[in-house]
Write a structure and sequence with these properties.
homotetramer, alpha/beta, Ester_Hydrolysis_Enzymes (chains A, B, C, D)
Chain lengths: ~220, ~220, ~220, ~220
């Protein structure tokens, strides 16, 4: 029984390699909001990931596709899942959504309740897994860079991040714990406890440094197997 | 060309009749929120519609199915469209949603932006029409029964109702203008300008009289062809 | 008893005249939010009122003072009542506040509940009347210029306007029903049912035309006795 | 210069003692919201403080007065400051407000902006100090008892607590850091990370244990000099 599991596990880890060997680059879609929309800009995180791969001579092995739209919440991703993801037959999908689900509660009264956030998130995963897509779920980064849990939405962001960690476990998908990475980084690198200007330009959207940091974490998640 | 259109039109109006003739009752789904969930209760509007049909000896010609879940907004309907509607192969679907999309802005910061309301609404219609379902869209009734446009959400309810009327025209589906019916009724029948107690018990959910009024309007919409 | 009331009433109406006769101009303070803050600008409503008085050769009879601060709600007025109004010993005060009390509910979750709006409003009036100030209360104008009650905040603005009308009656102070004037004007002069561009530049703040319209209505209220 | 300061300081610490010596009990007002309103109930924190004093035979030395009203925010305290506090000539006032200022943002769109929270808070202190009242400011306790900063309002509560600590320093008044005490307690005594049921019955209002805990902390603050 145990050895069978080993084999299955082996096959699972082999899947990307097989895809690569077939001379077909691994198609990776980044599915998200305005941060991901900006990710394909000149210094965006997806662009930087492409450059990192190029520097390692691996750029022909990956096809990185941005699928971010500003203002998107989890249910917006669900609405455009077929058109923007499934129809493109990706091998890997990063789901990186949640900032607006939390933020819009305060800024326009149109955020997403936690229980519905989970429901739509798991519906996304289910449809992707049915198509054998390798899914990597990301916790939402930050709304404000203060490092003492005193940004207005910290409580909600922490809660939604916990929910995503539970979703990852429950659905057996990989986790890229961006919020943890950001929070840990800011604990070390924000001595003046500023609201913005370290990894973000405006409390949410990323500076070049923020995009670089994100690119590294996403890359780790992508190639860790 | 014109005569072809006539034939198509004729066929369209005939569809329900054909369905009836085949001894198969017309399957009607009411797709909505808590008002529709309560609609199948002892005095609910769907129950009352059933009784109205029985009184006319037409109860064997219709199968009325409630598909309402409390707290639902337009995107919740979209999430459960396949399971709760499409898989049941209905002939007719009433879409009656919008109260929570507006209300939750104020009560929990989790309402629905107008543009997204329209997007999801039209996505619902598109999938139903692809299955040749006769779709009847309803404007949201009331949050508060004051008849001088001084209920807090009247502005938004009026706006979302206009959007639904436009959706009906643009997508060529039938309209059951519940908000107009309610507002007109309250203009005549709420002389003390009370917040609740005429058609609703709590500003939103229906009294027996409210359910009866709704049943009559829905019935008119259902059988008008 | 009745004649005593007549005398008192006569004295009340005479007060402004007496003030004028004493060669001391009537000191009028406009107490409000950003609309009033802009009111002292080159084309602001207070500036235009000054020009209207000048054209009639009455500018020496009135001293018009703007006391508007952007973002102010009714309780902000209460906090600065002593410093910005009472200490200046005005003869007349226009209270024009409520837009932010309603608007901020949706835009930042920091609006004012209706019951507290009334409480603070009446506290303002009470302190002004204790100093024999002639108080003129204004209903809040508009958030959006659509003329069919489909601007998101129309319900609340209508409700708060009703509360102010009741406050005027209950406290025996004059009413300048700005919302009614604006709504009536837009019913006639917004044929395309636009959201902005008639009396406001951005749904709230006034165009030159809006300032002119407001100046005329305020002037009517000021000199009607 | 330094010795003068010593004397002043000495006099300051002596004040309560003097008051007591004069056989007049120290009048202490608890100024706050529903938690304080419940504080005078059979097991409320003020009642428990009274019992603690009685057990020590000191009940004749203190007069404890509850002045809490449900739903109150900082500006509500300001509105009733004269009637409910200043006119009663207290020796000591605990200001314990902030829960609703934060909470109502999400629950009804009528919370208090941080900058205005500070403004009204300092206006309260200024008026009390002008009457030589010893002011003790309290940070807001909790909305939810989870101990990992994942309660929705934790970010805001942490922020408002920081603001109060700054207010205490800037205005030279005493601080009773209730939020810190609660958070520290829950870190030790909420092993299952429950939302409620430890110090609160409903995430906000206090259980008997919560009232007892609060009573002890308040008592420490009251008698520490």
């Amino acid at each position: 029984m145990k050895s069978l599991f080993k084999i299955v596990q082996f096959a699972f880890f082999l899947l990307p390699l097989i895809a690569m060997r077939a001379d077909k680059p691994l198609r990776v879609i980044f599915f998200g909001d305005s941060i991901t929309q900006a990710g394909v800009g000149p210094t965006g995180y997806i662009t930087q990931m492409g450059e990192m791969l190029k520097a390692k001579g691996q750029d022909s092995q990956y096809e990185l596709i941005g699928a971010g739209i500003g203002g998107n919440k989890v249910y917006d991703l669900y609405l455009r899942l077929e058109d923007d993801v499934l129809s493109k037959k990706p091998d890997v999908v990063f789901i990186y959504v949640g900032i607006n689900d939390v933020w819009h509660k305060a800024s326009s009264g149109t955020g997403t309740d936690a229980d519905k956030y989970v429901k739509f998130y798991e519906a996304l995963i289910k449809k992707m897994k049915a198509q054998n897509i390798r899914v990597i779920v990301c916790t939402p980064t930050v709304i404000g860079e203060r490092n003492d849990n005193s940004n207005s939405q910290d409580g909600d962001l922490n809660q939604y991040s916990k929910l995503i960690r539970e979703i990852a476990t429950r659905n057996n998908v990989e986790l890229c714990d961006l919020r943890k990475y950001f929070v840990d980084y800011l604990a070390q690198n924000n001595p003046e406890n500023k609201e913005k200007g370290i990894l973000t330009s405006d409390r949410v959207h990323l500076t070049d440094a923020g995009n670089k940091f994100l690119a590294e974490k996403m890359m780790d998640a992508l190639v860790k197997k």
